[in-house]
Design goal:
Blueprint: E1 14-18, E2 25-26, E3 29-30, H1 34-48, E4 52-56, H2 73-83, E5 88-89, H3 98-105, E6 112-114, H4 129-137, E7 141-144, E8 166-168, H5 170-184, E9 190-194, H6 203-210, E10 215-218, H7 223-229, H8 244-257, E11 260-262, E12 266-270, E13 279-283, E14 292-296, H9 298-310, E15 313-317, H10 330-341, E16 345-348, H11 351-359, E17 368-369, H12 373-380, H13 386-389
Parallel strand pairs: 1-4, 1-7, 4-6, 5-6, 7-8, 9-10, 9-15, 10-11, 15-16, 16-17
Antiparallel strand pairs: 2-3, 12-13, 12-14
Helix pairs in contact: 1-2, 6-8, 7-8, 9-10
Bound molecules: adenosine monophosphate.
Adenosine monophosphate (AMP) binds at residues 195-198, 201, 220-221, 238, 293-294, 318-319, 321-322, 324, 351-352.
Length: 395
């Protein structure tokens, strides 16, 4: 267990907090502020407990240059609005300069300041010690609350912890609690649903989960590589040709581990990758040569639903069809609805499945939606995340 801000006396201390304010922007306007609102519990706790709060984040990919297209100014303005309180924002191209140091020094208990985009510094993504030290010198305590970048060893996510006592904020605490418990001590039956485009991206997750789950459901584009490995023809469906052998190996591993591996038994296919294309349902062994499978079919929905209904813990990562197109979203909607109705602990592993659940208005029916796509995948792969490993352990 990692220490959190509750384990520290933050009163009167300067606390530097790594947040994930990497929000989508259109013409300089924030189009979705969920990442900012998600960070508020930690920020409010620090304010209420008399800390002097210094926030930092990256935004986009300025590639180590002070490109004002990626300034955190809009984020600073939104934080002001949400907290209903003035905050200090100094748009320093070097992130930390004399003005910033003086402002940090002058902070009073309950004050909040935001640094400029940490990726304006090229040392940031290389975890350069000089930049880590500059950040650390501003404060007395480091708090990591950016789960979305916890799989990266950068100056602001991990390096700074070499020079300051480091603990987690509430967001990371929640992620570790839900993802960690699900993987290490799940209530059983434990079912994982994996979807998405390619097997290649998810091999390590599948391998790790095969050691933990009772049932593994595979849908989405990656199912076709498994069909191929089983000797079926898949028409023009997406194929990860380099990984057919690996899919065969995973099928074998599942059998050896006594894990029930469920693949779709029918598919909704089209003649082209187009929402307006003619569609038809085929059993998986009858996909014609010039059709591509773009969603699971009704029999598969029922098969998957029955397995999910039995579960006490479910992890879902990746849509089971091309849900962005309305004609191929039914499978993903069905999975989301079953999870929403389930009494099981339901965990959505970030990225596209999180977007799907939001889009269908079912987000508040899930136990936990991970805020980090890449980070949650690496967590489920069983990897150590540098932004979490660097935090102090509870005694
Ligand atoms: P990933 O980022 O690997 O989770 O993949 C998500 C993407 O997989 C989404 O954009 C889906 O449209 C896509 N996808 C799901 N099922 C299929 C399919 N049958 N064929 C092609 N792409 C798919």
């Amino acid at each position: 267990m990692k220490k959190t801000i509750r384990d520290m006396d933050v009163s009167g201390k300067k606390v530097i907090v790594r947040c994930d304010f990497n929000v989508p922007l259109k013409d300089g306007v924030i189009t979705d502020d969920i990442r900012i609102t998600s960070a508020l519990p930690t920020i409010r706790y620090l304010i209420e407990n008399g800390a002097k709060v210094i926030l930092m984040s990256h935004l986009g990919r300025p590639e180590g240059e002070a490109n004002m297209k990626y300034t955190l100014k809009p984020v600073a303005e939104r934080i002001c609005e949400l907290l209903n309180k003035e905050i200090i924002f100094i748009s320093a191209p070097e992130v930390v300069n004399d003005q910033v140091k003086k402002a940090a020094e002058a902070l009073q208990a309950g004050d909040v300041m935001l640094l400029e985009n940490v990726r304006f510094r090229k040392e940031e993504t290389k975890n350069g010690a000089e930049f880590s030290k500059e950040l650390a010198k501003l404060a007395d305590i480091f708090v990591n609350d950016a789960f979305g970048t916890a799989h990266r060893a950068h100056s602001s996510t991990a390096g700074v912890a070499d020079y300051l006592p480091a603990v987690s904020g509430f967001l990371i605490e929640k992620e570790v609690q839900f993802l960690g418990n699900a993987v290490e001590s799940p209530e059983r039956p434990f079912v994982a649903i994996m979807g998405g485009a390619k097997v290649g991206d998810k091999i390590l997750v599948i391998e790790n989960l095969l050691k933990k789950v009772d049932t593994l459901i595979i849908g989405g584009g990656m199912a076709y590589t498994f069909f191929k490995a089983q000797g079926y023809e898949i028409g023009t469906s997406i194929l990860d040709a380099g990984n057919i052998g690996l899919a065969a190996e995973l099928l074998k591993k599942a059998e050896e581990a006594g894990v029930q591996l469920l693949l779709p038994i029918d598919v909704k296919a089209a003649k082209a990758f187009d929402n307006e294309a003619e569609t038809a349902i085929f059993d998986k062994d009858k996909i014609p040569a010039d059709w591509m499978g773009l969603d699971i079919g009704p029999k598969s929905m029922e098969l998957f639903a029955n397995a999910i209904k039995e579960a006490k813990t479910v992890i879902w990562n990746g849509p089971v069809g091309v849900f962005e197109m309305s004609n191929f979203a039914a499978g993903t909607i069905a999975v989301a609805k079953i999870l929403a109705e389930s009494d099981a602990v339901t965990i959505i592993g970030g990225g596209d499945s999180a977007a799907a659940v939001e889009q269908f208005g079912l987000a508040d029916k899930m136990t936990h939606i991970s805020t980090g796509g890449g980070a949650s995948l690496e967590f489920l792969e069983g990897k150590v995340l540098p932004g979490i490993a660097c935090l102090q352990d509870k005694n």
